[in-house]
Each structure stands twice: as C-alpha cells, then as structure tokens.
Design goal:
Keywords: Signal. InterPro entries: DUF4136 (IPR025411). This protein has 202 residues and is α/β, with parallel strands linked by helices. It has four helices and eight strands. It has a domain of 133 residues: 2-Layer Sandwich (Double Stranded RNA Binding Domain), CATH 3.30.160.670. The longest helix is centred in the middle third of the chain and has 16 residues.
C-alpha cells in the first residue's frame, strides 16, 4: 500500500470521541454539528485555486450491493462539497488540479449518558422519580452521521487538510438537509486562519 492511499486509513477514533461529546441527545433539527480539523501548518492554503475529486474515491460510500453507480448519500455529498468549494473560490477542474477532495460518510449508533447517580430522587417533568438509577445514569440511544473530508495536495500527493463533522440524525442515512449542514460546518473551517503564511511552502 503506498503512502497516497494510506492517508485515508489513519485512525480517527479520538476525533470521533471528541465529536460525540459535543453532541446533544436532542432532536435532529436542534442538534449542533461537532467539528474538528487538522492541517499541514507549512502550507500556504491561499495558493490553492483548483480542485478535483480524488481519483480512487469509492463510488458508493454506503456500501451498496453493486458498484459503478452512486448512492443517494454520495450524490448529496458531492453536491454539498461542490457548493461549498465554489463558495471558497475554488474552481473544479479535471486537468491538473491543485487539490484532490476525498470523503467518507457513515451512520453510527451512539450512546449518551445523561448525569450520574445512584437512584437519588430528582424532580423532572413528571414529578419526582428515579431517573438515574445505577452508577452510570440514564443512557440515551441515538444515531449520529459522521463525515470526514480530506483535501490532498495533488502535486505532492500528501494530505493537506482534514475536517470531520458529526451530528445527531433521525434515520439510518444522512438526509440532504443534514448533509448540507454537516459539510457546511466542516468546510467553514477551511482555509485555516493561520494557513495563509506567504512564506509557507507549497
């Protein structure tokens, strides 16, 4: 496996844990997007003007029964990314782009522990109760949509920037509205504010 393809197999468990802590177990319409990002601090990101899709991007992020066509989630992802990249002033091209864009999107079952307690009474909407019986408190089950977006320097074949976003969702797939919300939240952090150093290499 070469270094280029191995970029997308790096562990992101710690980032996922951090994002899950940012999410509330409220309804999807009110939950915020937890976002993290990291980047190569030696790069002047203002020099990037054009982009294209990573050549080895899978055509079906949802793992459908066949290949050669895009799932609904992939179509939503690509449309959302294209919209956000255009807002950033980056032009799509298939000829010698400055950046390659790759992504991964998935839905996971999550748990949130609300408070602790050992059966002490509390006053809630229905009066006094034992809402936290047990040492771990009340556990709420919910689904979270996680999106990772990688920007790869096409010339150097190295990862330049990675953003990850996660939000609570209602179903087993990420809806069009939710995709736009998560992708917009991730790419809001691009370019990094201190990634404009004119003395940086690129």
């Amino acid at each position: 496996m070469n270094a280029f393809t191995s970029l997308f197999r790096r562990p992101v468990a710690l980032a996922a844990v951090g994002l899950s802590l940012l999410l509330g177990a409220t309804s999807c319409t009110s939950s915020r997007v937890g976002v993290t990002s990291d980047y190569d601090h030696s790069i002047n990101f203002r020099t990037y003007k054009t982009w294209s899709w990573y050549p080895q991007q899978t055509s079906d992020a949802e793992g459908g029964p066949a290949r050669g066509y895009q799932s609904f989630l992939d179509k939503r992802m690509r449309t959302a990314v294209e919209t956000e990249m255009k807002k950033k002033g980056l032009t799509y091209t298939e000829q010698s782009p400055d950046l390659y864009v790759a992504y991964n999107a998935k839905v996971e079952d999550k748990q949130q522990i609300n408070g602790g307690g050992f059966g002490y009474p509390f006053y809630g909407y229905g009066g006094y109760g034992m809402y936290g019986r047990g040492p771990y408190g009340n556990v709420t089950q919910y689904k979270a949509g996680t999106v990772i977006i990688d920007l790869v320097d096409a010339k150097r074949k190295e990862l330049a920037w990675r953003g990850q976003g996660q939000a609570q969702i209602d179903k087993n797939t990420i809806s069009e509205e939710e995709v736009y919300r998560i992708v917009g939240g991730i790419l809001e952090n691009y370019p990094p504010q201190d990634g404009t150093n004119v003395n940086a290499r690129r």
